[in-house]
Amino acid sequence: MKTIPLSPPAVPPTARSLLDCSPQELAEVVKALPHQREDAGGRAASVPAYRIRQIQEWIYKKYARSFEEMSNLPKAMRDGLAASATLTPLTPVEQRVSKAGDTQKVLFQMPDGETIEAVLMLYDQRRTLCISSQAGCAMGCSFCATAQGGLRRNLTAGEIVAQVLFFARYLRNAGERPKMRVKRPTTVTNIVLMGMGEPMHNYKNVWTAIRRLTAADGFGLGARHITLSTVGLVPMIDRMADEGLQVNLAVSLHAPNNALRSKLVPPSRRYPVDDLLASVRRYIAKTNRRVTFEYALMRGVNDNPSLAEDLADKLHGILCHVNLIPLNPIPDSSFQPTSDRDTQRFAERLSARGISTTVRIRRGIEIDAGCGQLRNAAES
Ligand code: SF4
To answer: Is 264 in the pocket of ligand 1 (CB under 6 A)?
Structure first.
């Protein structure tokens, strides 16, 4: 493992993040700059639409990190933006790269001092980025490092998008940052909202970010390349079914019955397993999209083969896939990962019952890649 402390200049707390702006808001920001042309009545003239398109292109297509790079904007506009706005609302403060060079985690600081994490994983043809949606989390899952500090605050849409743009810049300019073996493709190809926070608990900002990431004049990623992972907030699953974007839904199930699941995932007390699965069925009926169930295997807790049978019973007839996840253990926790052999057995039981099942390849264990682990380490 390689740990690299990073200390670029912090973002002034007053700088307006352009990543939080819709095209209309962007036009307002530019219009309010000093030295903007004035109309006959002494009011700032409105900004031509092509200027806004140019700025958006610099942000989302060329991944500019400074206004100085925006060479087709007038100098006064660039200087005005540099004095009042930012393209980089997140300050990377620590970076960890796995020994194999295929996984890296970055701890970011936000202007108010809160920290979040994002993890980049390189596969043959994919560059998958796991991003955070909240600083901390209110869900209280008993095996999770993020849960330990509770919820600090929601991320803005711009802070969610900023994680993606940071790594998009990194992948494009691999030579300038500490070592990770980056070959093609040199951009982010897949995004999973599985980092810190419950995305459905910050629904509005998360979906504003998703729309910016998928918009043709935004980051332009196909919706099918984005996965939103939830512990199962039932009303929000119903709401997502109406969003009209082909974003993938992953549900962190972790147990097939309510008694066990409530101990692992407290929101299960409010949204019992059967209600949750009913909402998943409604979601599939509306969208015709397959849903993934995440199941983190914990030794002696939820890995008994009889639970695989119960799980197969519960999922019978649902258009789904089960992703078994070897738990990333956290320090001083009683939850430990299931052995490889027992994981395999659990997977075989599900497969034998006709449930499409894979075991997730474990990545980044030595860099504390499980969500919240790096932040907790930095704060301790
Ligand atoms: S596992 Fe996810 S939802 Fe549960 S506490 Fe951790 S971050 Fe929150």
So the answer is: no
